[in-house]
Amino acid sequence: MSNHIICFSPSGATLGQRILAVEDVFAADWELTQCFGADHESLSDWTKRVFQPGNNLLFIGAAGIAVRAIAPYVSAKQSDPAVVVMDEKANWCIPILSGHLGGANLLANKLAKRTGAQAVITTATDVENVFAACCQEKCGQLEAEIWNMAGRK
After folding, report:
1. What are phi and psi of 33, to 5 degrees?
2. What are phi and psi of 57, to 5 degrees?
3. Residue closest to 115 by CA, chosen among 107, 126, 123
């Protein structure tokens, strides 16, 4: 798993740096890519490189940019990475792909808490506060890991 932030303006870069500066933001390191100015990796090259199962992707910019960038690579909810969009003023933090299985809802909530943004969670199970059936297998795997850590099988 790897974590990637892409931004499209100096204001987005400032927010990206602010996120990176938070100690213990998440368990893993984050990479910040600035997609503006003279020398930068193209959005299509970046997306092709980082759109991998288990990754976390944060687009700081318009949701439409993120949707168009990821569209060619979206394949299955079981393997798509978590994709979150945040506006460059950190008003809104929106999971747009793989909310449950990929962890985008959790990521959006964590980012919102650390930046003062409002997480915009739209999945029905979260809104209704009920268990998501798609997470049953994931919960079963977690339960097995807990039992193994406790020395039981």
Report:
1. -115, 125
2. -120, 130
3. 107
pLDDT band at 30 (very low <50, low <70, confident <90, very high): confident
List own/partner pairs for 39-46 with CB under 8 A and 24 or more apart. Answer: 43/6, 43/69, 44/69, 46/4, 46/6
- For 51-104, the DSSP string reads --TT-EEEEES-HHHHHHHHGGG---TTTPPEEEEE-TTSSEEEEEE-SSSS-H
CB atoms within 10 A of CB 76: 9
Block residue for tokens 């990929």: 102
d(CA 66, CA 126): 23
Task: Specify the DSSP element, H or E, that contains 34.
Answer: strand 30-34
Q: Rounded distance, CA 132 to CA 87, Å?
A: 28
Average pLDDT of span 112-117: 94
The number of beta carbons lying within 10 Å of the beta carbon of residue 145 is 10
**Which residue in this structure is represented by tokens 């959005």?**
43
